[in-house]
């Protein structure tokens, strides 16, 4: 059974035989969902992504059958079924090429982030995230790290010439309090089956001694503190910011 619960790389997944299932009650486990779906056909894989802190599923998952017809049959039969009083949502996976999916993800993130980058001052709270699972994309980074505070720029994952993740990326926050907290909470923790490491990213310019200098140094923190003291870290345009740093 352990292999059934292992998350498969996208390249190994048959999207024609796979379903997304959502609106799942916290009481539903992978085993329960497996026992439900296996009634309609042999299952190759089932996975329910876990919350990085609570280790509980996030209310959705993916099931891959051995045969595409079983996926279609399951979708038709279970339409309208409720589990623990919640309507089960089922949807066929998008079979579009990965490059096109990444382009759509980039468009989503840019749309969501462009207003923030225009309104928040970049104080240098930029983190380097290393040893990322190759399945993690920019959207996943945004959803994960934005739970701690305001991410003011599009998360960046370094990719090779074919568009494949190189296993590291960058996330920029609006203040050092948030970035410090993220390092404290997530450094050396497991994110999608990989133990990640976090540190401040290197600045683009070299230091006075000609060596690389990381963001988050004393000089940047003093500038950020002065800016905060003089209310310069608020929205550049007209508007207010609540205590959590979100736009009202």
Describe what you observe in this structure.
This protein has 248 residues and is of the alpha+beta class. The chain has 2 domains: 15-92, Alpha-Beta Plaits, CATH 3.30.70.330; 126-230, Alpha-Beta Plaits (2-Layer Sandwich). Helix content is 29%, strand content 24%. The strands form 5 sheets. The protein has a 4-stranded antiparallel sheet with strand order 2-3-1-6, covered by helices on one side. Strand 4 and strand 5 form a beta hairpin. This is Hsh49 protein. Residues 17-95, 125-203 form the RRM domain. It comes from Candida orthopsilosis (strain 90-125) (Yeast).
In short:
By secondary structure, this protein is of the alpha+beta class.
For the structure shown, list the relevant keywords.
alpha+beta; four-stranded antiparallel beta sheet; 6 helices; Alpha-Beta Plaits; 29% helix; 2 domains; single chain; 248 residues; RRM_dom; disordered C terminus
Which fold name fills CATH's third level, the topology of the largest domain?
Alpha-Beta Plaits
Radius of gyration: 21 Å
Question: What topology, given as strand order, has the largest sheet?
Answer: 2-3-1-6
Number of domains: 2
Oligomeric state of the chains?
Answer: single chain
Give the averaged pLDDT, no decimals: 80
**What fraction strand?**
15-25%
CATH architecture of the largest domain: 2-Layer Sandwich
Classification by helices and strands: alpha+beta
Strand count: 14
SSE pattern: EHEEHEEEHEHEEHEEEEEH
The CATH first-level class of the largest domain comes to Alpha Beta
Shape: elongated
Please, what is the CATH homologous superfamily of the largest domain? RRM (RNA recognition motif) domain
Helix content: 25-40%
Number of helices: 6
The biggest sheet amounts to: 4 strands, antiparallel
As residue ranges, the low-confidence spans are 235-248
